[in-house]
Amino acid sequence: MSSRARPAPSADKEKKKAAAEMLVLSLLEERQRHGYEIAKLIGERSGGVLDFHAASLYTLLSRLEGRGWIAGRWVEKAGERRRRFYRLTPAGITELAAKRRSWQVFVQAVEQVLVPEPAP
Asked: Could you tell me the end-to-end alpha-carbon distance of the chain, in angstroms, rounded to an integer?
């Protein structure tokens, strides 16, 4: 197999980063959430296949907030520790729609390659 057949590690890393962004944005489309809840839902909904460590998740949330796709605010409740809740912004809604379209094109292309053609 040629070296071109395998994606470069940086390309693979970029795809994972884009997928992680899309997952977080999609969960925030439903309602505002705090980081621990986001990580827990990703794990639960993926059947444990996807796992986010706190450090990488909070780095991602900070990056998304810096891009203006999400907004965070601190919430304090009596008897509970302070939590930062995130919500999707209008720019985040637009970005999520673009990411979904791009993902669908990618998945369709992969499926076209995976499905064998009928024998002649």
From this structure: 27
Q: In the β-sheet with 33-34, what is the strand arrangement from edge to edge?
A: 33-34, 83-88, 70-75
Token representation of residue 117: 């053609």
- State CA 111 to chain mean position distance: 21
Helices vs strands, H then E, count in the chain = 4, 3
Q: Where are the domains of the chain?
A: 13-108
pLDDT digit string (tens) for 52-86?
888 899 999 999 999 999 999 999 989 888 999 99
* DSSP element (H, E) containing 54: helix 54-66
Residue 79 has what DSSP assignment? T
Best CA proximity match to 22, nearest among 90, 109, 92: 92
Phi-psi region of 107 (alpha: psi -120 to 50; beta: other; left: phi over 0): alpha
> What CATH number matches the domain at 13-108, 1.10.10.10, 1.20.120.790, 3.40.50.1000, 3.40.50.2300?
1.10.10.10
